[in-house]
UniProtKB/TrEMBL annotation:
GO terms for molecular function: protein-cysteine S-palmitoyltransferase activity. Keywords: Acyltransferase, Membrane, Transferase, Transmembrane, Transmembrane helix. It catalyses: L-cysteinyl-[protein] + hexadecanoyl-CoA = S-hexadecanoyl-L-cysteinyl-[protein] + CoA. GO terms for cellular component: membrane. The gene is LOC107565725. Residues 123-256 form the Palmitoyltransferase DHHC domain. It comes from Sinocyclocheilus grahami (Dianchi golden-line fish). The DHHC domain is required for palmitoyltransferase activity. This is Palmitoyltransferase. Its main location: membrane. The lineage of its organism: Eukaryota, Metazoa, Chordata, Craniata, Vertebrata.
Amino acid sequence: MAPSGSRSVDCWRVLYWIPVLFISLIVAWSYYAYVVQLCIDTIENMGEKIVYVLVYHVLFIMFVWSYWQTIFTKPMNPLKEFHLSHSDKELLEREDRRESQQEILRRIAKDLPIYTRTMSGAIRYCDRCLLLKPDRCHHCSACDMCILKMDHHCPWVNNCVGFANYKFFMLFLAYSLLYCLFVTATDLQYFIQFWTVDGKTHDRLIQYLNGLPDTQAKFHIMFLFFAASTFSVSLAFLFAYHCWLVCKNRSTLEAFRAPTFQHGPDKNGFSLGTSKNFCQVFGDEKKYWLLPVFSSLGDGCSFPTCLVNADPEQPSSPSGRNPSIKSAGESHQFPPKPLRESQSRLLNNGQSEGSEDRDKRGTSNPALTIEKET
């Protein structure tokens, strides 16, 4: 007999799929309303009918494909090197002195590409997953796991939006917006015809009151216009917001709370310029930009940062040095970390010699306290 606790968890998991089921039903109905009721039964011009059906199916396929990828792409978790070994876990649990705990975490984090800290300056440590959090990684309470470059947990896809599927989420927003705009634009003239006060519309209104077959097409066309136009407005705002986030190389969580580095919070800490920020999400091969296939750069565990390499978006000081780099280099120097292949591909080759020298310098980490984040 299954424990009552497991049954309640399974029940909650089923409930989480309700928003996805709702969206799926709306999309299935919109397909019937547009293809059957509008294109086949209402539009009389054959050329117009063929064009509408072809364009609609292209947008529909891309929309469903990107939505499917956003839902069923499993979120990526930190690599094994960020997890505490069994011996380190036992050491951390046995130690009561804070200094000893600090030494354990410093030893583990010494060779890891970790630059962000908690608000108090400690290494970001997850006591549920027992790992050191990579940069931009957060623990999702809904998924109960640490998600690489977590943006947010979206109930409409019943999944975490993060490094593994953020491109799919962006394409989902883009194609759903185009889908709704196309349906709204092509349905508008037939929507207006039902509300134009003339003899023909009067007959249709009488048929509507009498429940004749014409009412079915009227209902679907009218409601399809209202639904598509309403979704278009909300999707336009959401898509514009995430386009801004991509250009600034921020996640939704980072937009609300700037990532904290050793020198303090910096909202532009990961920004490398608009073009490089875009390539981090969509990749550097243009043929994959519009397709919901994974092409993002990197491994999700390490990211180039303007605090180690000059950020072209940041204003330069008269001496040509980035103020944030200067502050970090003088007061809180980062330990030298290995730049991964994904980072090197995004960095400028023409950086000044002074910047390269500053990248190579480093001292040991200052004393860090353990702060458990969830």
